Amino acid sequence: MKQSAENAVEVVGVSKVFGQGASEVRALDDVSVSIRQNEFFTLLGPSGCGKTTLLRLLAGFEQPTAGQIFLSGIDIAGLPPNKRPINTVFQNYALFPHLTVGQNIAFGLEMLGRPKAEVSDTVERMLRLVRMEALRDRKTSQISGGQQQRVALARALAPQPKVLLLDEPLSALDYKLRKEMQLELKRLQHETGITFVFVTHDQEEALTMSDRIAVMCDGNILQVGGPRDIYDHPADRFVADFIGESNFMNARIESVSDGRATLSLTAGATVQAILPEGVASSGDVTVVVRPERARFLKDGEAGASEVSLPATVETIVYVGTDTHYHLKLSSDEAFIARVQNDDRGGFLPAQGQAVQVAIAASAVQVLKD
Ligand code: ATP
What we know:
One of its GO terms (cellular component) is ATP-binding cassette (ABC) transporter complex. The protein is of the alpha+beta class.
C-alpha cells in the first residue's frame, strides 16, 4: 500500500504491546498521525504515555504489533534502522568520548562509505551550522553539556536524513542553556528544512518550539494542532489540564442553536459558547477558562462580551511578571485569575475581599469529558 508522499511520516492504526498475559503493557493503542514535510512536530505527554515507543517504532528499533508506518508515502515495515532515512538524537547524546568533535560528526558519514572529500566538506558545514568551528579538534569528553548537545545534533544532521527524531534532547541541560538550545533547535530545523519529531513532557517547551503538537496520554493521541490552537481550544479535560493552567467550572446546557450553547454556570452567570463535536446538546458539562482571561471589576460593570461572577479572594501569589489571585466562587469552585504586573492591572483587590471577576465570554470553552 502506498500513501500520500506529501506527509513526511504517516502512522496508521499503530499499536505496540510489550509482554504477555498479566504483564502485558499496551504502550500504543491504535495510534494514527500524519507529520508534514519540513515541520517541527512534537510528541507531548506525561511519563509513560508512549512517546518514546512511537519514536522507536519510527526509527525501526521496535516493530509495531499492529498498523503501518509510511515515510514519504512508502511503507517502511521490515526496513532496518540503518536503511531508514531517519536519524535520532538521544537524551544522553551517545557521543564517542575518545574522538574529537570533528571525528564524531564524520563517523556516521564514514560508516555510510561517503567519499573522503565529501565527508570533510560536510563536517565543516555542520560545524558552522551548530557554531562549533573553534572546537573541531577537541575531544568530546572535554567540552560542556551544551556543546556536546550541538555535536550530537551536527552528527545526526550530517547524513541529511529526511526525518530527525529527538528524544528529550534538552532535559540534561540547565534552565538557561535549555532556553538557548530551544531557539537553536528551531533555527536548525528552519535552516535545514528537515522534518523534526521532538519528544518532551514539558508543555512550555512544546509550545515554544513546535509547528504542531500531538498530545498523548495512555498510549493514545488526544489532540493534534498548532500551539495556539491547543492552548486556546483544548479538546478535552486532560489536554486543558496538561497544557497551561486551567480553571474548570461546572455548567448546564440550557439550549443550543447553530452549534452555540447557552450555558448557565453553577457559579452564577449565563454565557454562550461553541458546542464542540461529540458533546451532548443537553445536561451538565465542564467548561475551562484560562487564568489570564479574567480581570477584576471595580464597579461591578462587566463589558458587553464578558460575564461577571461574584468571588472572594483567598490567596494572592506574586510571581514577578504576574500576580495570581486564588478565588473562591459563589459555587464554592476554586478559580485562579492571573493579572500582569504592569500599569494596566486596573483594580487589584486585597486578600479576603469580595469581588466581581469578569471573564471574556470567548474564553469559556466547553470540554469533552
Ligand atoms: P518517558 O517520558 O518516561 O520516557 P514515554 O511517554 O516515552 O515515557 P514509553 O517509554 O514509550 O513512554 O513507555 C510507554 C509504556 O510502555 C510504559 O508503560 C512503559 O513502561 C512501557 N514500555 C516501554 N518499553 C517497554 C519494554 N521494552 N518492555 C515493557 N514495557 C515497556
